[in-house]
């Protein structure tokens, strides 16, 4: 079972180390010891839907695109995010051709969160559920649908997730081809009914993009895509995951609880953050459009259409925890283990298992979070934390108590801070 326990975390050469090997086989000890002063160490957050932040918009083909993505990668570390999928809203082919070659899959480090590949939301989505996407760029599949998709995106090299509307003609072929290539297909911005959604899942789709938003509302005779959460037509051994913008604005807490109680193991927290995340209120760009930020609300300028979010991942995790009353490990899993399982990388990320990437650990002290990314060859021992989210169920500490614990004294991002 999974759960929190008081434990030391050992790290060497960028991997989480089984200390028994060190003690008994190598008779070794730690080169560096870090006093975590009671903070929670957990797998770093993985954000599979983030459009930008800190003034950077991933859907804008600028000359300094690379420095923009680096800036976001570096800034989100202090919100606990250690890897992410830069997300592009519906764009013309020329924009995909310009931007996608500049996105490089890479590991995280003190320089910034790792990049897992792009999430392309559109352009094969429903005009009726376009949300903040520019209508003139939305399209359907031509004959030879998969070739059409290839021509639109230019290349599949760095693509990790594609959000499409399964009711679009010829989408089955595309879903099968993408799945075959290990690219995650997500259903969203769609008016699909439940049987169309189930068919898409049978063809390989595994994800739902921002559940409840930009899809048909739940209806008891045809629950639409939302019905996938309790469908009995999901192939055996498969799990459908669903993204949730848990910022307290895009989804009412009661709806969040409905989704969580119906299908807790599928919940994946996403920020869906736009360029305005981390910026002051006012007007900012999202793709081809202008949006207005007012507190945690973001609208297409001059309208009341919600447009992405400006909440950071740690805020979303806290809101989820408060809205559902779930355990802290459940909240952490929704932002770490589940997205790792969705992408099939749970052997390396999303857990603190031995041999997982040490560069994906984050810490939490009271309401502050930070990422700890250690790539050096030294052997580290992180001691005296209050709780450690570990693979075994250990001491039965009250999970909630860690949130009340607060200290300003924690080691900084990337630095050793040896004690
Ligand atoms: Zn969307």
TrEMBL record:
GO annotation (BP), single: N-acetylneuraminate catabolic process
Residues that, per the record, bind Zn(2+): 121, 189, 210
Highest rank taxon of the organism: Eukaryota
Protein family (similarity comment): Belongs to the metallo-dependent hydrolases superfamily. NagA family.
Keyword Hydrolase: yes
InterPro entries referenced in this protein's UniProt entry, alphabetically: Amidohydro-rel, GlcNAc_6-P_deAcase, Metal_Hydrolase
Database matches in Pfam families: Amidohydro_1
Cofactor: a divalent metal cation
Protein name stated in the entry: N-acetylglucosamine-6-phosphate deacetylase
Pathway noted in the entry: Amino-sugar metabolism; N-acetylneuraminate degradation
Entry EC number(s): 3.5.1.25
């Amino acid at each position: 079972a999974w759960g929190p326990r008081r434990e030391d975390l050992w790290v060497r050469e960028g991997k989480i180390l089984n200390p028994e090997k060190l003690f008994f086989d190598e008779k070794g000890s730690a080169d560096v010891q870090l006093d975590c002063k009671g903070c929670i160490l957990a797998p770093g957050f993985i954000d599979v839907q983030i459009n930008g932040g800190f003034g950077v918009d991933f859907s804008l083909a600028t000359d300094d695109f690379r420095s923009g993505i680096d800036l976001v990668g570096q800034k989100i570390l202090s919100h606990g995010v250690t890897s992410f999928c830069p997300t592009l809203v519906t764009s013309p082919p020329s924009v995909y051709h310009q931007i996608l070659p500049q996105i490089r899959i890479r590991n995280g480090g003190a320089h910034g969160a790792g990049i897992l590949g792009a999430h392309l939301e559109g352009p094969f989505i429903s005009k009726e559920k376009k949300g903040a996407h520019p209508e003139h760029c939305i399209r359907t599949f031509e004959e030879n649908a998969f070739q059409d998709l290839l021509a639109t995106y230019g290349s599949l090299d760095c693509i990790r997730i594609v959000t499409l509307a399964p009711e679009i003609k010829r989408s089955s072929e595309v879903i099968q081809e993408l799945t075959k290539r290990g690219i995650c297909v997500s259903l969203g911005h769609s008016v699909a009914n439940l049987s169309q959604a189930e068919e898409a899942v049978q063809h390989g789709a595994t994800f739902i993009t921002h559940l409840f938003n930009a899809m048909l509302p739940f209806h008891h005779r045809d629950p639409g895509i939302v019905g996938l959460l309790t469908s009995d037509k999901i192939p055996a051994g498969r799990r459908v995951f669903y993204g949730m913008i848990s910022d307290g604005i895009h989804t009412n807490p009661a709806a969040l609880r409905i989704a969580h109680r119906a299908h807790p193991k599928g919940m994946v927290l996403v920020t869906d953050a736009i360029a305005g995340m981390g910026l002051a209120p006012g007007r900012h760009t999202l793709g081809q459009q202008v949006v207005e930020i007012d507190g945690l609300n973001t609208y297409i300028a001059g309208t009341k259409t919600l447009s992405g979010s400006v909440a950071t991942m740690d805020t979303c995790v806290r809101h989820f925890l408060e809205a559902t009353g779930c355990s802290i490990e459940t909240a952490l899993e929704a932002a770490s283990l589940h997205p790792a399982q969705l992408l099939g990388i749970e052997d390396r990320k999303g857990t603190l298992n031995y041999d997982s990437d040490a560069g994906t650990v984050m810490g939490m002290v009271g309401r502050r979070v930070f990422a700890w990314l250690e790539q050096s060859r030294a052997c580290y021992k992180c001691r005296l934390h209050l709780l450690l989210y570990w693979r075994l169920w250990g001491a039965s500490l009250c999970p909630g108590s860690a949130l009340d614990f607060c200290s300003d004294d924690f080691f900084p991002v990337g630095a050793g801070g040896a004690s």
